[in-house]
Amino acid sequence: NAGVTQTPKFQVLKTGQSMTLQCAQDMNHEYMSWYRQDPGMGLRLIHYSVGAGITDQGEVPNGYNVSRSTTEDFPLRLLSAAPSQTSVYFCATGKKGGYTFGSGTRLTVV
Amino acid sequence: TQLLEQSPQFLSIQEGENLTVYCNSSSVFSSLQWYRQEPGEGPVLLVTVVTGGEVKKLKRLTFQFGDARKDSSLHITAAQPGDTGLYLCAGHQGGSEKLVFGKGTKLTVNP
């Protein structure tokens, strides 16, 4: 089992470009979430989903969109990238007893 | 305002020493989790505590949940270089699905 797979691992974008960060899980969990991690800021919740067709905002949702059409996939879309979105992005899945994280996508916006 | 405050932010010790890391809040949590993260990787779950006063042990690591469920601590006995990493506490408030994180404690254990 792969657990949580994030692609790509690295990405450089120009300001204003759009892209989708992919997250796929094979653990059959209903809950999935996206975090960003910045130096000195810890992990901050962007969006989360408690099941297919259901999404909600976290602490820092501005500039990001999500959708959940299947249990397995939870893509994160940046519609118009900004330098402030330079960060490491983590996807997680699991139950309240503990989550499994992907290995992250390091995004740089220039 | 950070919901979960971790201290210290940085800790550098020698192999064999003991240490304690703290995770504090003014809010009550239904559960608290501890994760360890190594460079270039995602956080990995170490333990979840759910009952006030609960103590869990994982080899040389001892985790405690405060009686009022507002704080937690992680104690490492006889630290080893392999314990080096970023230790993160995270918690759920009430019935919320949201998992909020502290900023972490970066631990370095020198040989």
Topology, element by element:
The complex is a heterodimer of chains A (110) and B (111).
Chain A: E1 4-7, E2 10-13, E3 19-25, E4 31-38, E5 42-51, E6 54-57, E7 64-66, E8 76-78, E9 87-95, E10 98-101, E11 105-109
Parallel strand pairs in A: 2-11
Antiparallel strand pairs in A: 1-3, 3-8, 4-5, 4-9, 5-6, 7-8, 9-10, 9-11
Chain B: E1 5-7, E2 10-14, E3 19-24, E4 31-37, E5 44-49, E6 55-58, E7 61-65, E8 71-76, E9 85-92, E10 100-101, E11 105-110
Parallel strand pairs in B: 2-11
Antiparallel strand pairs in B: 1-3, 3-8, 4-5, 4-9, 6-7, 7-8, 9-10, 9-11
Write structural notes for this entry.
The complex is a heterodimer of chains A (110) and B (111). Chain A has strands at 4-7, 10-13, 19-25, 31-38, 42-51, 54-57, 64-66, 76-78, 87-95, 98-101, 105-109. Chain A has 110 residues and is mainly β. In chain A, the strands form two sheets. In chain A, strands 2, 4, 5, 6, 9, 10 and 11 form a seven-stranded mixed β-sheet that branches. In chain A, strands 1-3-8-7 form a four-stranded antiparallel β-sheet, with no helix packed on it. The radius of gyration of chain A is 13 Å and the shape is globular. The termini of chain A are far apart. Chain B is mainly β and 111 residues long. Chain B contains no helices and eleven strands. In chain B, a hairpin with a 5-residue loop joins strand 7 (61-65) and strand 8 (71-76). Chain B starts with a strand and ends with a strand. At the A-B interface, strand 4, strand 5 and strand 10 of A face strand 4, strand 5, strand 9 and strand 10 of B.
